[in-house]
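Hi P.,

Sorry for the delay on this. The queue was packed all week, but I finally got your sequence through. Input first:
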Amino acid sequence: MKDTMIGVDLAKNVFQLHGTSMTGVVKYRKKLSRGQFSRFTSEQRPALVVMEACGSAHYWARELVKLGHAVKLIPPAYVPQCIIGTQIYGRHVGAIMSRQS
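Then the structure:
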């Protein structure tokens, strides 16, 4: 059973990660490059990974499934409803995580 949920905000060069337990307790917040993201996810136990659906999200979803993770893509229309003010990446990841249910 997966006991960790990882929210990912995909960007061109840097990915923001927000790891929580399934009960919502924050485990970590990380800012990783593409290479670091690949390495980090391959070292993690299988988890539920939540991402905003976009072109690169489908690629990363396939890669994460190969590593044993479960992936949930959130439609972009649902994510901005949670963001107040300008987009701040840490807040954006939180919005993605809040929409996973």
